[in-house]
Amino acid sequence: MSLTSTRPPSTTAMPISNSLTAGKLPRSASLWLLLGSLAVSAAVFGVLFVGGITADYNIAGAVFFGVLLFCLTIWSVSRAVEGSRKAKDRLVTALVSLAFTIALLPLISVAFTTITNGLPRFDIEFFTNSMRNVVGEGGGALHALVGTLLVTGAATLISVPIGLLTAIYLVEYGRGSLARGITFFVDVMTGIPSIVAGLFAYALFALLFNDPGIRFGFGGAVALSVLMIPVVVRSSEEMLKLVPNELREAAFALGVPKWLTVLKVVLPTSIAGIITGVMISIARVIGETAPLLIIAGFTASMNYDLFSERMMTLPVYVYTQYANQGADTQAYIDRAWAGALTLILIVALLNVAARLIAKIFAPKIAR
C-alpha cells in the first residue's frame, strides 16, 4: 500500500500594510514646506514692490501669507500621503504656528523697518562723534550713548539694593500689615506712568536745590529707579519664593542663623533668576524718553558728570533728531533711525546676557 503525501496548495503572501506607519512624511517635510511657502510669499511681495504696486516691501504681509500658505500646503500634502486623520493633526499644529506668527508680526515689522532705515548711518562715525557744532550731515550719538550708560548704570545701583532687600523682607521676614502695605505700594508703583516718575524726580530736586530749571543726569537716574524698583522687587520676590523650604529648614537644623541662611543658602539658589530679573528691568527702562526729557534734558556735547549740567541719552537723542529736523531733513531722520537701531541692539544684548547669566549661575542639580 503506497502512501501519497498531499501538499497544501501554495498561496502568494499578500503584503500587510500598517496604517500607523505607512504613508508617512519625512521629519523635515514641515520645515521645507514652511521655507518654501515663505520663499513664495516673499517673492510675490517682492514683485509687487518692484512693480510699484506697493510703496514699501511689506515684510509683515510676506511672513503672514507665507505661514498661511504653509497651513494649506501641509494639510494638502499630508492628506494625500498620510490620510485625513494625520492631515487634521498637522493642520491644527500649523494653525497654532499661524497664531504665534500673528503675535510676532508687530515685532517683525518694527525690527525690519528699524534695521533697513538705521543701517545707512550705522557706521564708525556715528559711534565716535557727538552732535557738537553739527547742523547737517555727519555727527553721531557718542554723547547719547555715554549718557545712557551712565544714567542707566546709576539707576541700577540705586534700584537693585533697594529692590532686592525689599524682596528679602517680604519673603523671609515680612508679616502683618506692614508687609501688606509694602506689597500694595509696589503694585501701585508698577503701574505708574513713566512721565510721572520724571515729574517726581524734577519736583524733588527743584525743591531740594531751589532751582526750577534744574537738569542733570542723576535726576534721570532717580526717575528711572522709580520705574525699576517695583520690577526688581516683583521678580526677586518670585525667585525667592521658588527656593524650597527644606533648604531653609536644613540650615536652621544645623544651627545657622536666619540672616546667614538667607545669605548663604537662599540667595545663591535663586541668584540666576534674580540676575535675570535685574537685566529685564534694565531693558525695561533703558528706552524711556519722557522722564529723561523732563529731568535730564538734552545737549549736543559730551557730559561725563552725572551731577552737573544736562545729559543726553539715546531715547531723547532719537526724539530730538526726529522732532527738531534742520535743513537737511534726511540726515536727521537717518540719525534717528540709527539711534533706534542701537537701542534695540542694546536691549537684545541685555536679554541674551540675562539668559547666559541665568544658565551659568543656575544651581547644578545632580541627575
Automatic annotation (TrEMBL):
Pfam families: BPD_transp_1. One of its GO terms (cellular component) is plasma membrane. PROSITE patterns: ABC_TM1. GO terms for molecular function: phosphate transmembrane transporter activity. Coiled coil: none annotated. The chain crosses the membrane at residues 31-53, 59-78, 90-112, 141-170, 182-208, 214-233, 336-358. GO terms for biological process: phosphate ion transmembrane transport. InterPro entries: MetI-like, MetI-like_sf, Phosphate_PstA, Phosphate_transprt_permease. It is found in: Cell membrane. Residues 145-354 form the ABC transmembrane type-1 domain. Its main location: membrane. Keywords: Cell membrane, Membrane, Phosphate transport, Transmembrane, Transmembrane helix, Transport. It is a multi-pass membrane protein. Belongs to the binding-protein-dependent transport system permease family. CysTW subfamily. PANTHER family: PHOSPHATE TRANSPORT SYSTEM PERMEASE PROTEIN PSTA. Part of the binding-protein-dependent transport system for phosphate; probably responsible for the translocation of the substrate across the membrane. NCBIfam families: 3a0107s02c. This is Phosphate transport system permease protein PstA. It comes from Microterricola gilva. The lineage of its organism: Bacteria, Bacillati, Actinomycetota, Actinomycetes, Micrococcales.
